[in-house]
Amino acid sequence: MIKIRLRVQFLVLAVILFCSSAQAQRYLSDIDSSFLKDTVRPLIKRFENINISGYMQPQFQVAEADGAPSFAGGNFSQYSSSRFMLRRARIKIDYLLRTEQRMPKVLFTFQIDATERGVIVRDMFIRLFETKRNTLAMTAGFFARPYGFEVNLGSSYRETPERGRMSQTLMPGERDLGVMFSFEPQKKDHKLYHVKLDGGFFNGQGQSGTTDFDSHKDFISRLTLKPYTFKKMELGAGLSFLRGGWKNGTKYVYETKTTPGGDKIFIVDSSESNLGTSAPRHYYGGDIQYKIHHSWGETEWRAEYWFGTQPGSAISTTNPGTLPGVAGLPAPTYVRHFNGAFFYFLQNIINAKHQLVLKYDWYDPNTKVSKTDIGKPGTNLTAADIKFSTAGVGYVYYFNPQTKITFYYDIVENEKTQLAGFTDDIKDNVFTCRLQFRF
Predict the structure, then answer these.
(1) How much helix, strand and coil, in percent to the nearest 5, is found in the chain?
(2) CATH number at residue 226
(3) pLDDT tens for each residue of 326-338
(4) Which residues fall within 8 angstroms of residue 20, CB to CB, at 6 or more apart?
(5) Which residues have CB under 8 Å from 180's CB, separation 6+?
(6) How many distinct structural domains can be found in the chain?
(7) pLDDT tens-digit readout, 262-306
(8) Cα(162)–Cα(154) distance, integer angstroms
(9) Residue 356's beta-bridge partner residues?
(10) CA-based angle 37:126:278, to the nearest 5?
(11) Which stretches of 20-152 are DSSP H helices?
């Protein structure tokens, strides 16, 4: 009995000591840097393959009006303009096997998010590393899509409370089921150490569906230039590509055309050959990050631009979890051309504990129409075609590397159209006060 008690106490002590040095990774596709350092005390050597990390984000929000629609954590309830919520509360467990040369060999990752809205799995995957040259890897399971910079920047490190509207609409949940192959040299003396190339095939529905509803897969690829330091500056960049789609449930496919009179309207193609074919989902993106280190801390600029083709329904451009339909019947497909961008300016004030955050982003789901076209009789244009832009301003105070508080205000503006409810700017600005602790 005494031996069992001592073993339990030893296990608890080992986990506590090990967790105290763990850190959540900055990018969703990265390996925690603590894995690659042989700093584990001999007392807990047997637990060196396990890394436990996590973070919690309780927050208070005030919206401009009751029932405000919002991408700052979801829509507000019908009769409420303020709320307390636990935005994220995550625990992540990584198990890494290494070679005798301390290079990664096999990684298993499991992460859950537990809030008042329920418990969901955020990551569940295996990554196999090639151990001869330590440059290649294969990932299989449920993991982050290799597209875009903002999508892959971890929520505990992101300076703004939420990702932009375009990220949330086109990449909901950030993760998907699939397999990915990567070129990423692990040794720092490799001449291509700062280059990473990912490419993989994914179901396409992400977390919004429990299973793939068709046989069409998305191919997603990203070429990343990891931050390269020269003098007091850092430069990083990336190019992203997605080619996929989902099954047309009917023969009716709508695309935006211009009439002889100059009106922009949705015109239907009802060819029988449309039924069952793939509605095009094609994205192209580029991003750049530039940082300067100085006596105050850091100054950073980020810019990211996406464009492409997105299928959807008459009322939505969000990637669906099930085949779009109405009353149990498949709905016609609406194909739109979109673009959008994210711009960040980050500035430490006085020292690294104080940070000013400025952000501007837009998402235009249908670049072929303007605000005056939407709402005209006979055009079939809906709220799903309206362009939104968001200007955000915030202040972040870092108590220590693990704890910070964020004050952030989103100023959201929509196109003023002829559509009822959107003839003027709707009241959907949101203030967020968030406390975060991570370990």
Answers:
(1) 10, 50, 40
(2) 2.40.160.10
(3) 777 899 999 999 9
(4) 439
(5) 138, 139, 140, 143, 146, 198, 199, 200, 201, 220
(6) 1
(7) 889 999 999 999 998 999 999 999 999 999 999 889 999 999 999
(8) 10
(9) 347, 395
(10) 135
(11) 149-152
